[in-house]
Amino acid sequence: MEIIDFSNAIEMVTCTDSGRVRAHNEDSVLVNPQFGLAVLADGMGGYNAGEVASGMATTVLGSELLTAFKNRSPHEVNANGQTWVREVLIDVVGRTNAAIHTAAQTHSKFTGMGTTLVMVQFFDNRIAVAHVGDSRLYRLRDNTLKRLTRDHSLLQEQIDSGMITPEQARYSMNKNLVTRGLGVEMTVDTEVNEYEALPGDIYLLCSDGLNDMVEDDEIAATMSALSSNLPMCATQLVQKANDNGGRDNVSVILARIKEPFPALNASGGWKGHLRSWFK
Amino acid sequence: MAKLILSMDNLVLKEISLDKERTTIGRKAHNDIQIDNLAISGEHAVIVTILNDSFLEDLNSTNGTFVNGQRAQKHFLQNNDVIELGKYRLKYVKEAAQPGSQTDFEKTMVLRSDMMRKAVEQADGKLAEAAPAMMAPVNLAPPIHAAPPPPVAPAAVHVSAAPPQAPPVAATPEPEPAPSPAPTLAVPPAEAADVVLGAIQVLTGSNAGRTLDLVKSLTTLGKPSVQVAVLTRRPHSYFLTHVEGAKFPLVNGTAIGTQAHELKSHDIIELAGVKMEFFIKA
Description:
The complex is a heterodimer. Chain A is of the alpha+beta class. Chain A has 8 helices and 12 strands.
């Protein structure tokens, strides 16, 4: 089948910085605008093992996904009612997890390494987001910022159970504890969700170095004000995190939908596509 | 580690470290903190400590538990909170971590499922129930997956799988001393005394004479899809940056190009046919 080139429909930019406290940047980002893919990982563990884990995550995912949609389109639905993209993301993230876990077990230097993950695959006027840990996906639509992922963290569990309020959470000392990570165990529980994408939407993938340092209101204001200049918007967000202290590595990926990107064979393969022409 | 300082009539009686998952307070002898006074209920209150955070809960005591003068049922304890039970006061003191260990500890770590189960059980509301007969104290050591600190200087580690791909894009500021290990607030450090406040005064066009204080961290100027620039407020100064449009804004008659341009007081900005003056107010 034909592979759609998304680069005309979606603009993507990245910005990553080690911040003002850390010597290493353990975050990794990868975008493939032709393929409609954005991946962000925040590594953790031993001195540069965190970089290794997050680097493995983005590289392995980036290459494995390229082949996954060669024979079947992401939007096709399986017998069990699930989209193919969902099945692929769970499978590929699972294999990436195993690869990182194996590396961590095999090399003593990498013992205990792991990484968070947030990734978006654009397809058929929709997005599929897969995430593990506390890296986030936000969406700006009509100047309103909405968080589309729920952190897999102790703090989020405490908020959900009503132990503490989101307001109190800002003062918690337990911000840094995630409950899921890639490479930590042999298997991983990947959360996948799908959302409709509209022209004008701006998606923000970020590591906790951004949302711990910059309030959501401020993120929203920055994205709204600079929506016409995505590279500057990304730089500005990172700069804001650093101006507020830059206590952690900070990475952002911004993706703006410029025009609709329907699947080519949405109406039943190329024949259906032709038929729709002549109607 | 956090501790409680027990006092009555400003007389310090005792210091108690919160090194257990549950620290019970009450009149009866089996409590961790026993206060033998009739105003105190048999099982009066409990403090649940999960890693670095402590939560106080009143166990339906007769005379109540107060925090900083307010009656509290459940309370997320903050440094220097004062808990009052009858005439007794318990001050909650959370010592800041060692400066050296702080950065390491703040790093993201994975909470293993065995630790998680404990935390979730508590979160599920078990803390309201009477203490189970013998609950193993939670190990307060950082989770297992925090890798041990490197023993030696980093000898380059070669990984064929993945070169970390992260070319820095943002202007990396020159290294500065790490900020104090004070609270991890998402809130920006509040206005320091030396923070400057700038303003612009419009000099030409229909809005001539109007002044705008630049309070927000970002102020956009110009006309969308014609020419837009943004004024960013940073800790010690303001910057003007081109956002969109075929022409760049002028500062004192010179185009600023694509880079952020630091403004000085009384600079003249020209944008979308309008002149304005930037100045520092305070």
